[in-house]
Write a structure and sequence with these properties.
14% strand, 36% helix, alpha+beta, binds iron/sulfur cluster
């Protein structure tokens, strides 16, 4: 019997989900080999989507468009923006990690710290796996976050920001909108990490079931909630938004020291504003079209 032809969206979605759901590499790296990430979401956006140019204004002129990132990997590329697709994915934290983090008031538990450190290694392996599978099919692709030129830059709007924002890529690809704490609220909630690759392949874009970039946050939607602000141990969240300076100090200095001393591995993490909040595991706005 002939194998049923799958369109590129189904094929790429399946290869990402299969890897996350079956690979022994998807682990927190502890003795129990606990799973790092739950079943992922996958979305697609066009390389010539108008959002990419708008990020040069909203994030900073240093933020790459997909074609700029692609041409860093393939300098003789000769590629047009409309020939590119951004493949974006959302990796939800496991129930166990979220449960353990909900009860914390100052520092992350070991599971969350491991998800930030070893879980990002998993995310890197996933990016490489997707690139390898695309290459086998003759598709040129790059993972902007793995490019040697990838860096963090000072940003007027966000204090500092990256040359490629995985969360912005997920927003364009129909996977979520931003919350008061800057995290991306997805159909699986805000306790997630995200990743992406830019590929020279035509895939129908995922519809964006929102119009504004903050539609799924209760504070911006209806002026209620702010639970994430109450969760922050250093007052980095308020109705004005996310103050990255005290947040970064807590995450990169205080928590980093704590993680090394308490759990014995290098890393930085916090995650308190991503758990025990209405947007932790789903879209909190009732009637939102993306809500399960
Ligand atoms: S906790 Fe509430 S205010 Fe904060 S991001 Fe989530 S929905 Fe928005
Ligand atoms: S990550 Fe931690 S320090 Fe930063 S805003 Fe969230 S709760 Fe506050």
């Amino acid at each position: 019997m002939e194998e049923e032809w799958k369109g590129p969206a189904q094929w790429i979605t399946a290869l990402i989900r299969d890897w996350v759901n079956t690979s022994p590499e998807n682990t927190l790296g502890n003795e129990a080999r606990d799973r790092a990430w739950d079943d992922p979401l996958v979305g697609f956006s066009r390389g010539d989507d108008a959002c990419w140019e708008s990020f040069k204004e909203h994030v900073g002129p240093f933020h790459w468009t997909p074609v700029e990132a692609f041409l860093l990997a393939y300098p003789d590329g000769g590629v047009r923006p409309e020939a590119l697709t951004v493949v974006s994915w959302v990796l939800p934290q496991t129930k166990k990690t979220k449960r353990e983090t909900r009860g914390e008031k100052t520092y992350p538990p070991e599971s969350w710290a491991r998800a930030r450190f070893y879980g990002e290694v998993v995310n890197e392996k996933l990016r490489r796996h997707v690139l390898a599978e695309l290459a086998k099919a003759g598709v040129r692709a790059t993972a902007p976050a793995l490019l040697p030129q990838f860096s963090r830059m000072p940003s007027e709007a966000f204090t500092f920001s990256s040359t490629w924002s995985e969360r912005h890529a997920a927003f364009v690809s129909g996977l979520g909108t931003f919350g008061l704490s800057d995290g991306l609220i997805t159909p699986r909630g805000k306790a997630v990490r995200v990743g992406s690759v830019v590929a020279e392949i035509e895939v129908p874009p995922t519809p964006r079931p929102y119009t504004g970039h903050r539609d799924w946050c209760l504070w911006f939607n209806s002026g209620t909630c702010r639970t994430c602000a109450a969760r922050c141990p250093v007052g980095a969240l308020s109705e004005k938004g996310h103050d990255k300076i005290p947040c970064s100090r807590h995450v990169h200095e205080t928590c980093s020291r704590y993680i090394r001393e308490r759990f014995g591995f290098p890393g930085y993490a916090c995650g308190l504003c991503q758990t025990a909040v209405p947007c932790e595991s789903g879209i909190p706005v009732k009637g939102a079209p993306g809500r399960d």
